Amino acid sequence: MDESDDVGARALAPLLAAFDAAAEEGHFTRAAQRLGVSQSSLSRRIKTMEHTLGVALFQPIGRGVALTPQGRDLYEHTRGLVRALDDAVRRVRADADPDSGLVRFGFPLTLGPVSIPALLAQFHTRAPRIRLHLVQAHGEALAEQVREGRLDLAVMIPPPADLPTVALGSQRIALHVARTHPLAGRTHVELAELAGEPFIANPPSYQLRSLLDHWCGAAGFRPRVLFEITEFETLRALVALGLGVALLPAAETPHPDLAVVGIDGERDREIGLVSGDHGSTLAVARLRDFLIARRAEISGW
């Protein structure tokens, strides 16, 4: 490396966190919030990087940003370095003060309005100096973030086979229909009875959609999905309006215009607490032990 290369590397090193956050978030405002800096400060850091390198790293896409080809190339080469440094700093700080630190915790879209905040509030009273970075996403997105070291722990339904998991309980899947639907007064239905019904479901990449397709196929029919949507509360609202039926876990806050009907067979999904293999801090271990100790509460989700 010649002298000019060395100067460039030293100039870029303090800016990589801003670049990494913006690349992951696809949005300067969210990246700035994640780093705890102003948007103008983050934008200046990105502009300084671009000036130093002599290339554009981001391009505007709608209300967010996307990496340019040069930006993607830089991100592929640097994201591992940024995360490795971040993990090293977190571990050193945690060893220096075991009652503080940061835990990056993920949980699925089917949980959150009641149970997760309640549990985290309990944990906060026991460890008020431990900071939590929370991510809510669908299963595969959570698994990928754990694999990459972007999350320390995640509650997943179901957990992936390739990551260390502690079983926490199970989640029952049931039929959801509008209160005005002919099946609303039933306590139990056979899945084959739904062959002529329109369904509202997640996209095919979601595990619940895979279960729907598999279970209906085993019952002798292919579900006729009229609406696909990722957001569960909106999905339930569409069902409540009588636009279709859905196979879902029970909502933590019951919907007044929905009826929940049991379906035949074993229709449960495993709930697991998943951790990565990137090195655990005492703060991570403390949250992990807390959640495992409360698996009885979790199994009631």
Automatic annotation (TrEMBL):
A Pfam family this chain is assigned to: HTH_1
Keywords, alphabetical: Activator, DNA-binding, Transcription, Transcription regulation
Residue span(s) of domain HTH lysR-type: 15-68
Signal sequence interval, chain numbering: none
Keyword Transcription in annotation: yes
SUPFAM superfamilies assigned to the protein according to its UniProt record, in alphabetical order: Periplasmic binding protein-like II, Winged helix' DNA-binding domain
Tagged with keyword DNA-binding: yes
Domain of life: Bacteria
Family to which the UniProt record says this protein belongs: Belongs to the LysR transcriptional regulatory family.
Protein name: LysR family transcriptional regulator
Native organism: Nocardia halotolerans
